[in-house]
Amino acid sequence: MSTNIEEVVTPDRDDAVAAVAKASMLGKKKRQRKSWIQTSSRLGAVVVFLILWSVAAGTLVDTFYLPEPTAVAEEIWDWILDGSLWTNIMATMVPAAQGFLIGGISALVLGYLFAMSKTVSMVLEPFVAAAYGIPVVALVPLLILWLGIGRSLAVGVSAIVVFFLIFYNVYFGIKDVKQEFIDQVRIAGASQWDLVMRVRLPSALVWVVASLKLAVPHALVGVVVAEFLTGSEGLGYMLSSNAAQFNAAGTFASVVVLAAISFALDRIVFMISRRALMWKETAER
């Protein structure tokens, strides 16, 4: 009897495994097809944009205002050959990274303290809200007085921009944890460290990851603004100097380089976000 049962069950099990494998393969092919369509559509959009740009430049719009794509490409190529492109990229990216770290770490620490201490939040939150309402450009003269002109100014502007973008996300992310859930975890014997690593931080992580989408490119924007106003090197300086010389090709080339860097940063943030959310799921188990 048992032999007959095995003979009946085994084929069913094999069929089930085959069905799962087939479904997995079909799902993989579907994702690949979707990715290919998405990539092709984006490349097609870029090609159409370049064609329209080429047609408009010199015919519909004077090249003084809208240079041809080839002129912009030649400008970028010249910068690559003389080494100025890499030098200015590093002059911008280093203070952007420093500003991001300073602003991000400060936001994480203060956001956690504000969320955990009602007294700190009650006393200081109005001042943070008031500072958040001040345009960063309005703070530049004060930052020049404190930090001087140069890399320190760029780092300061970048740090301020990043701080406010991350601070409130950390604050609300930690506050979003329901007290009932915390009580249940404590009853289960969790330590304070477990509460932080398995409850509070994973809860805030979704909010922080969402803020990175804005904070990372805005760290770059903060540096570019500082360079545009007072810099003597960097991508912001390249942009302002070419605009001051009425060099449309150089101005557009600076914008294209900034756009390319922003796109690369966005892809990096996307990959980091996926890893972070995977850690969140693991920590919550």
TrEMBL record:
The family database entries (Pfam families) matched by this protein are listed as:
BPD_transp_1 (PF00528)
Classification via InterPro entries: MetI-like, MetI-like_sf
Q: Which GO terms describe its biological process?
A: transmembrane transport
Q: Which residues form a coiled coil?
A: none
Q: Could you confirm whether the keyword Membrane appears in this record?
A: yes
Its localization reads: Cell membrane
Keywords noted in UniProt: Cell membrane, Membrane, Transmembrane, Transmembrane helix, Transport
For this UniProt entry, which segments traverse the membrane? 43-65, 85-115, 127-147, 153-174, 204-226, 246-265
Q: Which family does it belong to?
A: Belongs to the binding-protein-dependent transport system permease family.
The protein's name is ABC transporter permease
